[in-house]
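Q: Please design a sequence for this.
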């Protein structure tokens, strides 16, 4: 039975209380002392961002721009226009709050009306009313869809009104009235009266959408201080109970170990938005949820981002996650503070300081106005935090996802066991990544810019999703299959001060074909069928000798070993030279080819500054060894 901690806490609150507290997370524009008390350099940097948007021409979005996704599958063109509008409005609002001279107001009002007059706030890629069904070519303005970015837009406009409401009223009372009207129509009413899959129910699989949407709905509601209509208290109660139950459903699908199966990049929308939603509920109830931050599962969720950090900008990545998953900052710092984890606070503070002057560079900060304000008003606290030492990274195994992480002063090694049914899944069971001295060595490519194909039945036609473009074998002409049944078996891990290791059986991640003959069997009750020839992978890390040893043994024939490298490889007999960074000796295989993997996609180019490489070795024996040092 699902544990309903959030819901039971909120139900208990309402049994003993009849109202909520006003939600005032940071000062509105009237509190001039609060804004003038911010560091001068910070204020000037943020105002200059706003000045760059003075006279801003909000880009036109035509009906055909919306329709283009359905026609071509291209998501990027529409989303560029859509997000640029919101980035500019945020920059103008923060600048006006800091300066309060009115010179940004006209451009802000233009932005408010541009967003309010959009036919829909959901992206074209999310324009459907039932999960995993085809998108409508145009939105139905009478039936709003609550997707990630409709909820983001609701939170953004609510935050604008919260911050600048009094200044907007000086111009016209109809500005705030228009915001309130659109929030009621597009956020409050559908949230309370409709069901969207991310809200959760028994049998519904959830992901980062749940806390991300829930947090932003709560912001849209509580930054306004009221819901429309005469049944204000009843409506607010309904919102809190519905949000609490959604968070419980989200946690139901999360492992006790706290591992985000979507990767570090999505932790910012999964774990951090869980914290955001919980903290809003805690604040409006006067601390009813504070005990939840002592829950080991929540603490584990918070610390995940520290454990998968490699060095500087790099993170351990798998699935759709990028190895450059964005700097940590105020949100991670506050999650660490709330869960009483000084190492997480230290890590977040160090990473935030490494950001430099552009404190809103992170994509989430650019889009979410609440995050920008949160960053402003916790800036000094984070900057003053003692970061004179390095945070302690430790070896860890996350059984819920099968993620193994081990490191010493030279290497950071990660191995992905688990299965091929992660959220944002790639067929990557058994793959490994390796960094040396903070630099990528053997890598996970990540994902290209999202398109219609990315989240469709044709997902695994995309090359980056396929196991042969991971550090994995192709066995008798077959690559791995997607699905929970295609998984690693007999996983064994060991961690010691001087060494660590992981061993697994990989044959079950590969599908069966008739041509395999007697070496293959049906798996009872599994119509998908899986390979029954064994393929065992062991990765051993000798920390004292700075040596990684990968050993593959198999009874299969015709095995091609695929390795993706960041450095251009020079392969000679039994040796792979990876630039000046590392050398790897191998035995039991012969070179088939070295291929250049062109990095031309814009999303991949944010992670990799040059092309990657694929080494293909033909296994010549039942045992292959790769020793890296």
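A: Design:
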């Amino acid at each position: 039975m699902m544990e309903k901690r959030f819901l039971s806490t909120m139900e208990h609150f309402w049994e003993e209380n009849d109202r909520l507290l006003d939600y005032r997370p940071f000062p509105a524009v009237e509190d001039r002392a609060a804004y003038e008390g911010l560091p001068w350099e910070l204020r000037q940097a943020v105002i200059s961002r706003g000045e760059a948007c003075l006279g801003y021409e909000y880009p036109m979005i035509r009906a055909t721009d919306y329709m283009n996704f359905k026609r071509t599958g291209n998501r990027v063109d529409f989303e560029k226009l859509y997000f640029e509008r919101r980035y500019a409005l945020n920059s103008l609002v923060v600048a006006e709050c800091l300066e309060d001279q009115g010179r940004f107001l006209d451009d802000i009002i233009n932005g408010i009306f541009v967003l309010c007059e959009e036919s829909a706030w959901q992206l074209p890629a999310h324009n459907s009313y039932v999960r995993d069904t085809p998108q409508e070519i145009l939105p139905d303005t009478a039936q709003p869809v609550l997707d990630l970015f409709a909820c983001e837009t609701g939170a953004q406009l609510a935050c604008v009104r919260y911050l600048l409401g009094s200044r907007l009223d000086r111009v016209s009372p109809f500005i705030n009235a228009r915001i309130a009207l659109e929030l009621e129509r597009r956020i409050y009413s559908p949230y309370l009266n409709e069901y969207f899959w991310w809200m959760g129910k028994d049998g519904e699989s959830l992901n980062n959408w749940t806390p991300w949407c829930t947090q932003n709905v709560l912001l849209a509601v509580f930054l306004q201080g009221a819901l429309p209509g005469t049944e204000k208290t009843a409506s607010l109660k309904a919102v809190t109970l519905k949000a609490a139950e959604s968070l419980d459903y989200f946690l139901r699908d999360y492992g006790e170990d706290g591992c985000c199966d979507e990767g570090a990049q999505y932790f910012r929308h999964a774990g951090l938005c869980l914290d955001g939603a919980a903290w809003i509920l805690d604040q409006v109830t006067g601390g009813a949820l504070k005990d939840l931050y002592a829950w080991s599962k929540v603490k584990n969720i918070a610390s995940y981002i520290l454990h998968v950090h490699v060095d500087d900008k790099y993170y351990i990545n798998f699935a759709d996650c990028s190895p450059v998953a964005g700097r940590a900052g105020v949100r991670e710092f506050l999650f660490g503070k709330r869960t009483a984890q000084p190492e997480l606070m230290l890590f977040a503070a160090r990473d935030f300081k490494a950001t430099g002057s552009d404190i809103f560079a992170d994509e989430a900060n650019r889009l979410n106005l609440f995050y920008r304000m949160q960053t402003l008003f916790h800036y000094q606290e984070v900057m003053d935090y003692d970061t004179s030492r390095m945070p302690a990274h430790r070896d860890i195994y996350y059984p819920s996802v099968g993620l193994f992480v081990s490191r010493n002063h030279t290497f950071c090694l990660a191995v992905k066991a688990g299965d091929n049914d992660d959220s944002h899944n790639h067929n990557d069971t058994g793959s490994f990544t390796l960094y040396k001295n903070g630099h990528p060595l053997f890598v996970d490519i990540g994902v290209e810019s999202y398109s219609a194909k990315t989240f469709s039945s044709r997902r695994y036609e995309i090359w980056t999703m396929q196991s042969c473009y991971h550090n994995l074998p192709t066995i008798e002409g077959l690559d791995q299959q997607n699905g929970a049944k295609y998984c690693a078996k007999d996983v064994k891990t060991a961690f010691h001060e001087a060494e660590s290791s992981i061993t697994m059986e990989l044959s079950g991640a590969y599908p069966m074909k008739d041509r395999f003959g007697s070496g293959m069997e049906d798996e009872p009750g599994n119509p998908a069928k899986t390979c029954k020839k064994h393929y065992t992978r062991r990765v051993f890390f000798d920390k004292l000798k700075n040596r990684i040893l990968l050993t593959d043994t198999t009874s299969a024939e015709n095995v091609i070993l695929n390795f993706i490298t960041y450095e251009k490889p020079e392969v000679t007999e039994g040796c792979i030279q990876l630039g000046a960074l590392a050398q790897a000796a191998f035995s039991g295989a012969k070179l088939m080819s070295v291929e250049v993997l062109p990095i031309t996609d814009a999303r991949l180019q944010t992670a990799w500054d040059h092309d990657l490489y694929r080494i293909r070795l033909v296994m010549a024996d039942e045992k292959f060894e790769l020793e890296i040092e």
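Q: Thanks. Anything notable?
A: The chain has three domains: 1-22+227-392, 26-193, 396-628. The longest strand covers residues 589-597.
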